[in-house]
Amino acid sequence: MSIESAMLSREHSLEIVPICALRQTEEIVAPQKLAELAAVLSKQGIFPTPVIAARNPVTQTILPLDGNHRRSAGLLCGLHYLPVMFVGWDEFKIDAWHRALSISNPEQLAALFARFNVTESKKSTSVNQAVLFYGGKTYQFGAVKKNKLRQHQITKDFFEALAHFGVPIENIAQVKTETDELKKDPSCLVVELPKFTKNELIETIESGIVLPPKAYRTLLPHGPIRLPVRMAFLQTLNAIPPEHLQAINEKWATELEQILFIPLPYEINVSEDRDRYYDALSVTPLVVNSNADFEILDPHELGKLNPLALKYSIIKIINLQEDVHRRIEILSQALDISISIVKVMGKIDRLCIEGSAMMNLETVFALCVSKTPLEAGIAQILAEREKTLNTIDLSKELL
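User: That's the sequence. What structure does it adopt?
Assistant: Structure tokens below.
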């Protein structure tokens, strides 16, 4: 079913898909968290975010792009089917996750370099090869096949060996712009990994190979879409034969016709359990028919995601100035938002701002701590909010 909203590409579609069609592409980064995620899904009773995938236009093989952990957690919950959002094959790009880690014990690193036959390299390396940067020098893995898969595998083994020395290796995946900066630090080890192509990923999946964690990074036209599907409904699908799936998708299409997908002007995090299981929102559903009857989607959770009622917050360190309290009071009243000053450990002042998802709270923060005349700043914020609301179909009637 194509999403009927000018807000998103017509190439997008939402379907209920058998989990067996969604092959695991990467090893799980933190397997112990899967049980936690499965418990959260069961407790909340919703599958909150569809897996994002694309179909190879030639072979029709499905390439999962985002949601590897959600897929695996769904399996733990005993689900046979999952909601999937498909994007066009030409709408996404494949990039690489690189690795970066501060080294506190150079002797341990030297021992691992010897163990893994890491040698200094003065020549330009192949596009199929990992490149290591440390102490102002460039290195490579010696005596290892210069193919992308093997280079990713040896990099995984190398960092796992570092972990055995007690070195924390969580959150070491970095993008190229970050590693370019970190390479300037002689105490930082950076490993830049070769990038897979789309066809290489498809060939790998079809061969049954599961890639190491964070082997590829997908650049999508937008982030994951929060679309709460009832877990109870997904569980009922376990008993249906595959030939009934088309009728199920037709039923879901009927429910989706009651929804517009609205890009938010600012990416925001509205998760109560933030930074663990949910990505920041950049697109959110708006129910356009208040009398719609939902069986697959959870109407209560959909209501929480209404972009016209959605709120988010930011917290920033500030240096208190003489007139900050007065400016906060004026801005709070004029913009109908919550602004408060919180002391951390009794010393550091932080400004907490909570307001509408239709409003740029970064601009509000700048007004709080600057000398800019408030009247003009408030007028600009309200004008931008009105402009955003005017882009949302039916928003005037729903306000």
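The radius of gyration is 24 Å.
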